[in-house]
Amino acid sequence: MLARTTWAAGLCAALCIAVSELSATAGSGLTTSLLVVLGFVAAVTGPWSASGPGRSDVELDTGDLCTAWQRSYFQLLVTRDATARRCLVQRRQDYLDEIERRDPDGFRRWLDSGARPGGDPEPYLTAGR
How far is it, in rounded angstroms, from Cα 117 to Cα 129? Predict the structure, then answer.
């Protein structure tokens, strides 16, 4: 997974540089389109992406699990297919269930703070404090 994450980070950095260069010469519409594509690529290629059969949220450390929760929100924003959206919603529920299982008190602190659909629960978790 480290090689995949490193590859995704490199791709993300290269795309960020390309977007910044294009924003200096192109219109804002093109820049916005490229940022949407960049976000989608990051969401799909990162360690937080949906995985094949047998992959469990238990395999993710808590930080990656929180990142997966946040990234899945952005995936949901760009996904139009109803079946894919249902799968993403289920995946997000799985992330929440696993976060709550690992740290019920921290999970409650996050909810009590006014948790947002794309918010980061990690600062409220015991390991993140």
Answer: 21
